[in-house]
Each structure stands twice: as structure tokens, then as C-alpha cells.
Amino acid sequence: MTSEPAAGQVLERNTPGDSQDRELPARYPSARDLPAGGSKRQRDEERQPFRWDLALVWFMRVAAILWIAKGLAYWVVLLGFLPQTPVFETQTLQWQSAIVYFAVIDLVAAVGLWLTSTWGGVIWLLAALSYLLIGFFVPHAVVSGPVAPGILGFLVVTYFVLSWRASRIAP
């Protein structure tokens, strides 16, 4: 008398000459045989993969907020709203050029980052790298300590890694 195996069970003969079948537990239990939480393997299979494209969007939005603040800070210096900042017109041409450049490019980059557009990332990289280069060659033209280039370098590397990982996602 042979019967169909139930879900999660396998029929196996005891010996080659024995006609009696016995039920053995299946190698992989069904979902109803598992405890309420399920196995770690099933939880891992049910979990969605990490969304690198979503991480890139969040990174770009946070960077956009930071760059809006940075651009507005340059406009505060340019317009002389803070009493401790030097008068814009009395400064050197290099300093004035750097302030005007970053007051404009930082806000343009922030808009592009917020829109998560390709041109926004390019303009942001241009702004970040020009800040590093101007800080290196003309240190008095930008406010830069030892921490700012490190943070900026970290942000640029993070952007490249997230962009690379997001581009490798299968459609």
C-alpha cells in the first residue's frame, strides 16, 4: 500500500526487499513546520536586496541641503550680513572671485543634486574639486581647515561608490 507523501515528508523504503514504507521528515521543512519567526535562510530570502539607487538619491538630497547652506553662507559673506566678516569690496580680487564663484556654483550644484540629475552630480564634483584646488593653491581665498578637505574627499568618494553600485543594479 503506497500513499502519496504529505507536504514536507518523503517516503523511503527500509530495505530493498521490505515492502513497508516509512515516513521520514523532509530535508527542507515547509513553512508551516517552521516556528513563527521562520528560519534565518527564509528571512534572508524574503528580505529585499539593498537599494543602492535609493541610497544614492538620499545621499544626493542630503548633500544638496548641505550645499544650499554652504552657498547661502557665501552669499552672507558677499552681501556683508555678518558684522565680523570683512567688507567685500575691500578684499583682494582673488578672494572676491572665489566668494562669487562659490556663491553661485554651490547653489546651482545643490539644485542639481536635489533633482538627482546627472548634471547636478557633475556640477557638484566641479564645485567640490575646485574648492579643494583653490584651498590648496590660494588658502586665504576660502575658509578651509584641516577637516574640510577630508570631509569633502570622503563625500566625493562616497558619491563615486554609490554611483558605481547603483549603476550595477539589474533593471
UniProtKB/TrEMBL annotation:
Stretches that traverse the bilayer: 56-78, 98-115, 122-141, 147-166
Protein name as catalogued: Uncharacterized membrane protein (DUF2068 family)
Residues covered by region (Disordered): 1-44
Keywords for the protein's UniProt record, in alphabetical order: Membrane, Transmembrane, Transmembrane helix
InterPro entries: DUF6163
